[in-house]
Amino acid sequence: MLELIDVRAGYGGSRVLHGVTMRVAPGEIVAVLGRNGAGRSTLARAIMGQLPREGEIRWQGQSLTSLAPHQIARLGIGYVPETRDVFGPLTVMQNLWLGQRAGKARTARPPSAADRALTLAQAFERFEELAPRRDAPAASLSGGEQQLLSLCRAMMAGPDLLIVDEPTEGLAPRVVARIGRILTDLRASGVAILLIEQKLSLALSCAQRIAVMGRGTLVFEGAPDALAGASAIRREWLEV
Ligand SMILES: Nc1ncnc2c1ncn2[C@@H]1O[C@H](COP(=O)(O)OP(=O)(O)OP(=O)(O)O)[C@@H](O)[C@H]1O
Ligand SMILES: [Mg+2]
User: Fold this and answer.
1) ABC transporter domain spans which residues (predicted)?
2) Are 128 and 149 spatial neighbours (Cβ–Cβ below 8 Å)?
3) Burial class (CB in 10 A: 0-12, 13-18, 19+), 136
4) Helix or strand or coil: residue 167?
């Protein structure tokens, strides 16, 4: 379980998050929607320890607030940033090896936790688009393939929590649907997923709960059905 209590964070003197409280449970996708600049990526960076932050962030009962990014990454938390985390000059396979190494560096895995770490064979089975490209430099892949590689790399370590920042931005509808299915399968295996998104349709179809962020606070939290019915919230905080 990921728990955020009154989390505040920002850049230098300017505060962006003004007290965010939320939870993500195992086997649940929580989507965070919001307009450009609402603070969603800042929330992801605050959880991952990349920014000074106040308030409380807990993962499986342990406080993350005073840990450094490399320590947080070893606790079974996978992060796919909005920049798509692939190393262009390295091949697809080398990128996946790096993800596997991150998994081996992992420290505190509770003995009861399912071991979801992937072998290369399993990765290419699950991400069949990547198999024929295994020896190609990541930079030569299409945008959609790079996003799949970035996701797959994060999954190599078998995270129990995955934070994914706008995985579908700029991608064709077919790839968007594919990413939705991958996240849904992952959730079904018990992973907790924090999905930062722009696309209301994807959030409605794969999340169990939706949070809407506006100017650094949550202005809505509830089930997809509740947001589908809350047209005033959608007009004020989501639609352009
Ligand atoms: N590195 C940074 N330094 C200073 N300010 C930043 C930095 N990154 C983001 N900001 C500011 O923080 C605010 C929130 O940005 P954030 O990236 O969290 O938004 P977002 O919700 O992810 O939106 P989007 O991804 O659509 O741009 C914005 O006002 C942005 O200008
Ligand atoms: Mg962002």
Assistant:
1) 2-240
2) no
3) middle
4) coil
Mutate to test the pocket of ligand 1, among 18, 36, 42, 219 (most ligand atoms within 8 A of CB): 42
pTM: 0.94
The total of structural domains in the chain comes to 1
Each residue of 215-237: pLDDT tens digit?
Answer: 999 999 999 999 988 999 999 99
Q: How far apart are CA 40 and CA 211, in angstroms?
A: 10
At 176, list the tokens: 């968007």
CATH of the domain at 88: 3.40.50.300
pLDDT band at 104 (very low <50, low <70, confident <90, very high): low
Place of tokens 């996708």: 29
Residues 122-181 pLDDT 10s: 999 999 999 999 999 999 999 999 999 999 999 999 999 999 999 999 999 999 999 999
40 within ligand 1 shell (Cβ under 6 A): yes
Rounded Cα distance between 123 and 161, Å, is 18
Query: Greatest CA separation found in the chain?
Result: 50
CA dihedral 164, 190, 62, 17 (to 10 degrees): 30
Ligand 1 neighbourhood includes 45 CB (under 6 angstroms): no
Residue nearest to atom 29 of ligand 1 (CA): 37
Atom 3, ligand 1: residue with shortest CA distance: 11
* 170: helix, strand or coil: coil
The answer to whether 33 and 228 are in contact (CB under 8 A) is: no
